[in-house]
C-alpha cells in the first residue's frame, strides 16, 4: 500500500482541541473520569452528540465555580461555629471552676475580676457588656446573662415599682428558681433588706416548710442591685382568675385556699410580722393539682410596732385604719384576707373603689356607718366626715349605709360563709376576727387538705413544749431506734436552744441589720 493511502486511514489526535471540549463538558467539580486514549478508526467521531448531551452541565463553568467557592466558605463558617459551640460546651462542662482557673480561661474585664474576688467558685458565665442602669435604676439584662456567676436568666416573670422578677437556673444546685432584682434606689434597697431579713427569720423558724410562706434561698448585692432568690412557684391567684375568665373558684378549693392562707397569717402573727399587702397577686400556687398555695412578696412587710409607712396596701384591699390614717397592726391583714376570699368566690373585687372616698362609701354601703367616736379620732377625718363625725354626702360617691346585703352581693346562701366575712369586715380593728379564731370558725370545719398540704400547729412560740414533742416525733422517724436514746438529750438541748418562746430582741435584730450599709 502506498504511503498516501496509509495516511487516509490514520488518526490525527488534536489534544488541545480535545481538552477544550472535555473541560466545557465536564467541570472539575463533577469528578468524572475522562477518556483521552485514541479511538478506533472505525469510530466516526470522538464522542457521539448523544453522550455529550447526557453530561451537559446545568450551569456554566464560571457560575459553577462561584457556587463551589460559596459552599466552601459556608462550610468553613459552619465548621468554625461548631468548633466554638463545642469549645463552649466543653468549657461549660468543666464548671464549677475556681476563680483563678476561670480568670485564666476567660478574657474577663477588670470590673469582673473585682466581682470575682468576693467569690470562691464560678458556676456559670456568659460574656456580657456591663452597662449602666435603665430608667429609675432598673437592671438591664438579656436571656442567658449570668447573675453573680451562678444564676442564668431564662425569662421574665413579672415587674413592678420595686424592680423585676426573673426565672433563673441555678447552676450550683441545678434548680429553677425565681430571682427578684430590686431597682438601684436607696429607699427600695433598704426595704428589700428588711424583706430579706423577714423571710430569713420565717425560714429559720419554719424548718419543716409548713408555714405556707415562700422560702428564701439566697440574697446578695450584684452590681449595685439587691437580689433575693426565692423558690419558683407556678402562678398567682389573679392569673388563675383571669384564666378562668373571672368566674371565681369552686367552693371546695376556696375553703382549702382560705385555710392555708390563715395558717400563714397565724404563723406571721406569732412572729409579730405584718404582711401589709395581701391581694390575689401575692398568693401563688405551688402545686395546682394538690391545691397548695404560698404567701409571697414581703416588700411592704414590717414588724408590728416598727411600721415604716402610712400609705400601704392596694386600695381594693385597704383596711379602714390605713384609709383613715390610724395606727395599724396585724389586723389589717385580716381585712385584706376577707376582701381576698370574697373576690376568690365571686371573681370580682368586693370593694372596687376608684378612689379612697368611693372606697369608704362602698364599705359603708355593706357594713354601715362607723361610730361618731371612731370617726372623730381619725387623723384624716376631714376627707371622709363632717365636723360632727357623720359621713360626707357627696353627690357622686354617697351610698346608703347597709343598703347592700352580703348574701346578695356574693350570691350565696351559706350563712357560715357570710358570717365569716362579716367578722373580717369591722371598722374597729380590735373587734376584728383574728387568724386563730378564723381557723376555728364553722365555715372551715371539716375542710380536708391533701396529703401534700400541711396544716401544722404553729403554737411553738407560745407553747414550746408542744413544738418540742412534735420535733421529737420527727427525730424518732429519722434516727434508728438503737440510737434514739443515745441522742435524746442532745435533741432536747437543740430544741430548747432553737425553739424558745418569742423574744422581742428579734425585732431589734432585724432592724439593726436593715440599718447597716448594704454591702456584698
UniProtKB/TrEMBL annotation:
Keywords: ATP-binding, Kinase, Nucleotide-binding, Serine/threonine-protein kinase, Transferase. Pfam families: Pkinase (PF00069). GO terms for cellular component: cytoplasm; cytoskeleton. GO terms for molecular function: ATP binding; protein serine/threonine kinase activity. InterPro entries: Kinase-like_dom_sf (IPR011009), Prot_kinase_dom (IPR000719), Protein_kinase_ATP_BS (IPR017441), Ser/Thr_kinase_AS (IPR008271), Ser_Thr_dual-spec_kinase (IPR050494). ATP binds at residue 180. Residues 151-444 form the Protein kinase domain. PANTHER family: DUAL SPECIFICITY PROTEIN KINASE (PTHR24058), DUAL SPECIFICITY TYROSINE-PHOSPHORYLATION-REGULATED KINASE 4 (PTHR24058:SF22). Belongs to the protein kinase superfamily. CMGC Ser/Thr protein kinase family. MNB/DYRK subfamily. This is Protein kinase domain-containing protein.
